[in-house]
Amino acid sequence: MSDYTKGMLITILGAACWGLSGTCTQYLCSVQGVNSIWLTQIRLIFAGIVLVCFGCLTEKEKFQKFTHTPKDFCYCIAFGVCGLMFTQFAYTTSISKTNSGTATVLQYFSVVIVLLVSCMMARKRPAFREIVGIFSSIAGIFLVATHGSFLSLYISQEGLAWGLISAVAAAIYIMMPQKLMKKWGSILPVGWGMLFGGIAFFFLMRVWRYPISFDREIILGMIFIVLVGTVCAFALFLMGTTYIGPARGNMVGCMEPLVATLTSALVLQTVFLPMDILGFVLILATVFILARK
After folding, report:
1. Residues 21, 233 contacting (CB under 8 angstroms)
2. What is the pTM of this model?
3. Which of 21, 124, 226, 291 has the lowest tally of Cβ within 10 angstroms?
4. For the chain, first and last CA: distance in Å?
5. What is the number of other CB atoms lying within 10 angstroms of the CB of residue 266?
6. Per-residue pLDDT tens over the stretch 45-100
7. DSSP label at residue 126
8. Closest CA to 45 of 82, 104, 88
9. How far apart are CA 22 and CA 103, in angstroms?
10. Nearest 5 degrees, angle CA 16-CA 21-CA 24?
11. Can you tell me the distance from the alpha carbon of 217 to that of 199, in angstroms, rounded to the nearest whole number?
């Protein structure tokens, strides 16, 4: 199997895990009443601990070298705070304000952001098909947010704002760690990044101020989110992008919003109207337009 094919499969699997995580997050926030700040904190800290321990056990020599390379280790901390912490909180809050399908599709505006940043870095103009993809994505967001009305929003202002913020966050976390992962792999940078991101989030948001009650459903949901939706999703998705690149990785990850939308509708009975579906199609069409070689 070629590296490119391997990267495609790994990225798709990681995106699917994240899609399932989105629906589980919607369940915890909307049904169980879990605060998005608490949920972000638990995801980052515990997923970081799991990945750091796994990296220590399976890559001892690399683990020691990484922790004794100040430049890379400090960059990993920055990635944890600016990339992972930012992404997790924005995405979780977006779900709590809308639903997993809508939040995940809105996050896919990151495709356009990655494209524009890539063009700026390469000092070239977007090609015609890329311009078509940009307008398709913008039109899709308009339909999802307004259902075609120029006078009012269909989703809340907070939901739209956090959806777009999560798109910016997703673009940052995809592009930021590429050199780090090519050198050290995905496990150690993601693990340490999550752990430091979680620690920073704990103090920045003063998480101890928010009360939370635990029952069996909440505990099982959080375990699923940590192990499948965070550890597996981030590690697989970011590892896949080291093979196929950040822009294409973001495109191939369209499995994420598809899985999130389907499971939200089937499991949580979330209702998606025709305008929602059309908006989703236009946003996801950007993925296929830009994925053409």
Report:
1. yes
2. 0.84
3. 124
4. 20
5. 10
6. 998 999 899 888 888 888 888 888 888 888 998 998 888 899 889 999 999 998 99
7. P
8. 88
9. 8
10. 135
11. 25
Query: What is the rounded distance in angstroms from the CA atom of residue 51 to the CA atom of residue 47?
Result: 6
At 183, the amino acid letter reads K
d(CA 52, CA 55): 5
Backbone angles phi, psi at 235, to 5 degrees: -60, -50
Dist. CA 168–CA 164, nearest whole Å? 7
Length of the chain equals: 293
In the structure encoding, which two tokens stand for residue 174, read together?
Answer: 């995809």
| DSSP conformation letters of 105-144 | HHHTTHHHHHHHHHHHHHT-PPPHHHHHHHHHHHHHHHHH
| Among candidate residues 52, 95, 279, 57, the one with its CA nearest the CA of residue 186 | 52
Classified as helix, coil or strand, 151 is: coil
At residue 253, φ and ψ (nearest 5 deg) are -70, 15
Residues 283 and 141: beta-carbon distance below 8 Å: yes
Residue 31 CA to residue 288 CA, distance in Å, equals 34
Closest CA to 254 of 227, 205, 291: 291
Q: In one letter, which amino acid is 114?
A: V
